[in-house]
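Thread: Modeling a multi-component assembly for a lab meeting

Hi all, long-time lurker, first post. My supervisor asked me to bring a structural picture of a complex we are working on to next week's group meeting, and I have zero experience with this. I have the sequence lines for every component (445 residues in total). Could someone generate the structure of the whole assembly? Inputs are pasted exactly as I received them:
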Amino acid sequence: MGASETTALHVLPNRHADAPQQRDLDKCVHCGLCLNACPTYRELGVEMDSPRGRIYQMVQVATGKALMDEGYLEHMALCLGCRACETACPSGVEYGKLIEATRTEIQAKVRRPFPWGMVEDFAYGTLLQSPLLLRLLATGLWVYQKSGLEALVRASGLLKLMGPLGKIEHLTPEAQLPTFFTQYGKVFFAEGERKYRVALLGGCIANVFFARLHEATVRVLQKNGCEVVVPAAQGCCGALHAHAGRREQARALARNNIDALLQTKFDAIISNTGGCGATLKEYHELLEHDAAYHDRAKEFVSKLKDVNEFLDSIELNSKMGPVKRRVTYQDSCHLCHGQKVKVAPRKLLKAIPGLEFVEMPASDVCCGSAGVYNVVENEMAEEILVSKMRNVNSVAPEQIASSNPGCMIQLAAGSRKHGSGKLRENPEPVKHIVELLDEAYRNAR
Ligand code: SF4
Ligand code: SF4
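Re: Modeling a multi-component assembly
Sure thing. I ran the full set together rather than chain by chain. Output:
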């Protein structure tokens, strides 16, 4: 039997080509060792909202014993995709792969009610892929926020009349002008001797909401002997698309980035976003059956490094000034459970003079951000955030360090609402690790 025939046998009859494969589902031995790692199970105590329960339901659907009914859709939607269960599983179940495959099948077979289907199609298919629209969005939002209109709306009580939209309004990040799109196509020279030539990935919405973080990333890399190139032809990484089951769109975006980034020889391709990095490192899996791109995808993945991972792998420039602050660290799920990068961020924090690093309990449990989860499953995300903030407050930090912009938005909202002591008073309760390094380099005499 040839390889292609073997693959074909694993696609069950009448199922989507990207649906969960039986061989992957069969890896689960139902031991339950993953249950306590799962944030939704910890909150709800419901088996069907645990990894084991979700895999059981996937098997029922795969074998035709159950339908994709409302209950199934809800249990799958409530999963954060945080992959904490993957780290906890002793049997090597690749849960991230299973939930993405499940969502791809749901996306292909289940029609979203009007107008949400259209809104989602526009967001994933157009907005996230258009620098022009993202810049327009940022400019409009910037005017709304800086003109005082945002404060007026918040004070007027209007948000209470806006139902679910009013409840998520506080998660709107600050629009940052100029956006980082203005740096596309530029080269930033290394400070001192050039040791490395690296490419920086800007992503999509991070260019307009985290432009200053990207600039700090460039500066920190320059301080560490890197010539930083921001390739103009790069685009959205496709992580949000893959998580939402829009696999074909994710594949098209992956091909675009491979074309854009492999044109030139780089020592490393750098991402400062844990969520994007996990998908970028899986491009070879996404393009597994694409003969023209699979080998190039592997080459791309071999160069891809999270910024923490990269800085930890080189001799870090230690000419830093003190950052006198008590800081805790929240793991980005996709950095620690997806990319398995857990030690490097802590080593970097400990390298900053004056910074008092304090570990919080359950730092590797999701904060509830999970891509767009805090927007679409706001109630559960809030419950998870309350638990998270309890753990943050227990170590009394002045600031939370993170490695993922999505977590930064969620934790900043959590600090304002549920933070205690100096954290609550801090106008910048959350910073990315490269922003703390940037601060330390600027403090050097
Ligand atoms: S991905 Fe996260 S939320 Fe989903 S089942 Fe696994 S641990 Fe639970
Ligand atoms: S996913 Fe892994 S840890 Fe969880 S029940 Fe299955 S085999 Fe056990």
